[in-house]
Amino acid sequence: MKIISNPLELKEYLKDKNQSIGFVPTMGALHNGHISLIKKAKAENEIVVVSVFLNPTQFLKGEDLDKYPKKDEADKKICELSGVDILFFPHAENIYTEDEVSILSPNVRGYILEGTSRPGHFNGVLTVVMKLLNIVSPTKAYFGKKDAQQLHLISLMVKQFFMSVEIIAAETIRESDGLALSSRNAYLDKTQRQEALKISASLHAASKMVTQKILNSDEILKKMREHLEPLEISYVEIVSRDFIPLRHVEIGNTIILVEAKVAQTRLLDNIWL
Ligand code: AMP
Fold first, then answer.
1. How far apart are CA 243 and CA 92, in angstroms?
2. Which listed residue, of 28, 86, 179, 265, carries a Cα 20 to 30 Å from 199's Cα?
């Protein structure tokens, strides 16, 4: 596995390769969710590039940028063992200068849900993803459904900026008890981890209601809020795949999303129905 930190060196290295490139952008502290994206990329491409970059511009002031788990050596091992060809490991100075051009997320879909809790967050996400996609020029780039709104906005950006990359959505990987894997789970102690299970349980309850033909969003959201108690809920919403709020679940076109706080840790989860 080749490790590169300079964007121009990576561009030069990949130039004229004439092979399909699968790209998995991450912020590090890799877990099985990331590994599943890497495996998918490996199965579908000749070369796999993974980036590990803790992107400062997507964190708001006072958020957890400084305490976000950093596991550089373990990440390198995981990439090596997963058969990654190139690990892109830039420093912030390799990616950003001063007085930068940036991408703005859309006024509506960038400022609902996660965008309400973290205004401006998606500007940072879209800007870094634009940079990374331009550096790697992948055939396909892989993103988790776990971050559904991020995935949606990246797909919109790629479409609206006429970019030549295929965005591939990957399923959410969970622990056996239902907890969605996240680098931020490392913040949870044993009791908090138990509390966090209320999030996947609320989604499970919603999905059960839908199988019982209860499709009314208000009814489902009420039941979910009961399951989430006493967690502090940032949002719980039922939207279409295009992120328009739905009054009724439409099978094949629905995402139910939750963000709740366990102690100081914000955890996201969702199901696609
Ligand atoms: P992050 O390092 O948290 O920025 O995540 C990098 C990529 O991994 C994003 O596309 C995430 O959506 C994806 N990801 C994170 N957690 C999971 C998970 N539990 N299952 C599948 N993909 C995930």
1. 31
2. 28
Does this model's pTM top 0.90? Answer: yes
The range of the structural domain enclosing residue 255 comes to 183-272
Ligand 1, atom 22: closest residue by C-alpha: 144
- Fill in the DSSP letter of residue 64: S
Give yes or no: 34 in active site. Answer: yes
SS3 content of the chain, % helix, strand, coil (to 5): 40, 20, 35
Query: Which contiguous run of DSSP H or E holds residue 167?
Result: strand 166-170
Return d(Cα 273, Cα 159) in angstroms, integer.
Answer: 24
Closest by CA position to 256, among listed 198, 199, 181, 206: 206
Cα(65) to centroid(ligand 1), Å: 17
Cα distance between residue 259 and residue 273, in whole Å:
18
Query: How far, in Å, from the CA of 51 to the mean position of ligand 1?
Result: 12
Ranges under pLDDT 50 in the chain: none
- The rounded Å distance from CA 234 to ligand 1 centre is 20
The reply to whether 22 and 115 lie within a common domain is: yes
* CATH number of 210's domain: 3.30.1300.10
